[in-house]
Design goal:
By secondary structure, this protein is an alpha+beta fold. It has a five-stranded mixed sheet, with no helix packed on it. Strands 11-18-17-13-15 form a five-stranded mixed sheet, with no helix packed on it. The protein is elongated and about 175 Å long. It folds into three domains: 107 residues, Immunoglobulins (Immunoglobulin-like, Sandwich), CATH 2.60.40; 106 residues, Immunoglobulin-like; 108 residues, Sandwich (Immunoglobulin-like). Helix content is 19%, strand content 46%.
Length: 427
């Protein structure tokens, strides 16, 4: 019985030793994992330290201006669009003023973004901002070198930047294949409308090449006109178009004349080109000006007196307040029945913008018109629905003869009464 207890005790001790051994092994593994983790952390700590060191080495302020190209060659009548990048490597954001300090005579140039013309921009720290430099040559540009100078400065003037862009216009080469590879088609190449309106051409572009091609879109119009390309039925603007072989796509050309534009005819040149193809479309906009008339009296008085069957005169003026010449202006009237309204002159052949002429209006009430107030409207009608009117209050008074008749009747009555009293007094 004692031997069994000893064996049991020894068995328990062996198991306890095994459990302690396993516990030590687990502790050793956990210690190794923790050691490896600590080593990993310390191995990366120099990178963080280096990053912090780099941040501390950044200057408080640092900004530069970099044009995409400083020299470029173009064919005649080709426009230039390139990016100008502002890079801020400082710790603080910068307000930058930018402008075109020098441009060749006759060229149209500006700094813009997708929607706006730019005179200044904000560049956040450690960021870049881009704007577009655009230059359009005049129609009669000659081959040669044309220089543009771009300047910029921070708002406080501490940093000043300057770059020169040279554009070399090459001689025009006529190859006879200029219209091959791409086709332009429009049903309405001429649009007509008043000054202040907006115009939109619809153009179909067809890729007649055997390969996929990206076509650049270019437009040239009068100075100050805003011309943009849009996909049909969309509002976004585009500057290029990618087409598969024999694929066609419609685009809209949106044209906005400036408010200072005058009536006349204005050509719009549209060019679509790639490295292998080129096509041109000549469009035209006819501005007709606005048509507007103003009618009134020189004194501002809109009332007059008249007598039945007698003529009464009143003067009115007709002024052209539109921006286009107004021709063949005629007059009409709205008057009581059996009244007469005449005009001298009967019509105005031509009125230039801001010009006015005086017209005599002769009003003759009906011979049997009763005493009282009446309304007479006078209207002038010109071109394109332009018209205006003025309304008069006409007071009809009795004719003088009836006054004398009344006086005569009163005299007769008075004389009659006197005679009666005398006759009766004698009796």
């Amino acid at each position: 019985m004692k031997l069994d207890i000893r064996s049991f005790t020894e068995s328990l001790e062996d198991k306890e030793d095994q459990m302690v051994s396993q516990s030590r092994r687990g502790l050793l593994i956990a210690s190794f994992i923790l050691f490896a983790f600590i080593i990993t952390i310390f191995s990366f700590s120099p990178l963080y330290g280096q990053s912090n060191k780099n941040d501390s080495q950044k200057p408080e302020r640092s900004i530069i201006m970099a044009p995409e190209y400083t020299g470029i060659k173009i064919p005649p009548n080709e426009s230039v669009d390139m990016n100008i990048t502002f890079i801020n490597r400082g710790k603080r954001g910068e307000e930058v003023l930018v402008w075109i300090d020098q441009a060749p005579k006759g060229w149209e140039s500006k700094l813009e973004t997708f929607q706006y013309e730019i005179t200044g921009l904000f560049v956040p720290p450690d960021k870049e901002k881009r704007l577009t430099f655009k230059a359009i040559p005049p129609d009669d540009v000659k081959p040669g070198k044309y220089t543009f100078k771009i300047k910029a400065r921070t708002e406080d003037g501490k940093f000043r930047m300057e770059d020169t862009i040279a554009i070399y216009v090459e001689k025009e080469e006529k190859t006879g294949k200029e219209e091959e590879g791409v086709k332009l088609d429009t049903s309405y190449p001429i649009l007509r409308g008043p000054i202040g309106g907006e115009f939109e051409f619809s153009i179909e572009v067809k890729n007649e090449l055997d390969d996929e091609a990206t076509f650049d879109l270019f437009a040239r119009g009068p100075e100050g006109w805003d011309i943009n390309f849009k996909p049909a039925f969309e509002s976004k603007y585009i500057s290029s178009l990618k087409l598969q072989p024999n694929q066609s796509q419609k685009i809209d050309v949106e044209v906005k004349p400036p408010s200072s534009a005058k009536a006349g005819e204005y050509p719009i040149l549209i060019r679509v080109s790639s490295s292998k193809a080129r096509a041109v479309a000549n469009l035209k906009i006819i501005l007709t000006g606005t048509y507007k008339l103003d009618v009134g009296t020189p004194t501002g008085i809109l009332s007059l007196e008249a007598r039945p069957g007698e003529k009464s005169n009143v003067s009115i003026y007709v002024k052209n307040t539109g921006s286009a010449e107004n021709k063949d202006i005629k007059f009409t009237s709205f008057k009581p029945e059996n009244w007469k309204v005449e005009f001298k002159p009967e019509k105005i052949d031509l009125l230039k913008p801001n010009e006015f002429k005086q017209v005599e209006v002769i009003i003759t009430p009906y011979e049997e018109a009763l005493v009282g107030d009446y309304s007479v409207e006078v209207r002038a009608k010109g071109q394109e629905g332009s018209e205006d009117s003025v309304e008069f209050r006409v007071t009809v008074k009795a004719t003088p003869i009836w006054g004398w008749v009344g006086i005569g009747i009163i005299i007769v009555i008075v004389v009659g009464l006197i005679l009666i009293f005398r006759f009766m007094g004698r009796r």
